[in-house]
Amino acid sequence: MHITSIGEHTYQLTRSAILFPVNCYLVRETEGFTLVYASIRGSAGDILAAAAKLGAPIKRIVLTHGHGDHCGSLDAETWS
What we know:
It is a single chain. By secondary structure, the protein is α+β, with helices and mostly antiparallel strands. The protein is built from two helices and five strands, in the order ββββαβα. It has helices at 44-54, 68-71; strands at residues 2-5, 10-16, 21-29, 32-36, 58-62. The chain has a five-stranded mixed sheet with strand order 1-2-3-4-5, with helices on one face. The model has no long low-confidence stretch (mean pLDDT 87).
């Protein structure tokens, strides 16, 4: 998963998928990160590793809609 800083408090995480790259975002807040989108199925471990590399835990997940490339890893047991 590729990490790109896109502002003072926001990071874009990009995962290469079969048809197109899939992005999700970590927004740094006082108590940790808010994850915007949960990417495709199987991404939870890489997202958590990226948050750890950036030095904060994920405290919230925000979804805007239910497409598989945005909420595919939402049911992963690793979030708890």
